[in-house]
Amino acid sequence: MTVSAQLVTEEFDPEGILFWKFYCDPSDLHRVKRYLIERNCEIEEAFVGYIPKREILVPNHVKNAARKLIVELNKIPTVDNVYTNIM
Length: 87
Description:
Layout: E1 7-12, E2 18-23, H1 29-38, H2 60-74
Antiparallel strand pairs: 1-2
């Protein structure tokens, strides 16, 4: 079985514990997860998210308005995730 991640990064959680973050094609998510589990890796979470192809720079007042909108959207029970390309 061929399994590939497009990007793997080493990061630290808020408690200072090292973890790996894998980025892969959404259609490969379950294959990558299964591959890691078969090699006794502990999977904390695996999900399909969105990464912007291009981030945009906006003035601070626009950024603040967008941040407030995102906070309000996240209060809605049926909203799972909000994605943005604003830097």
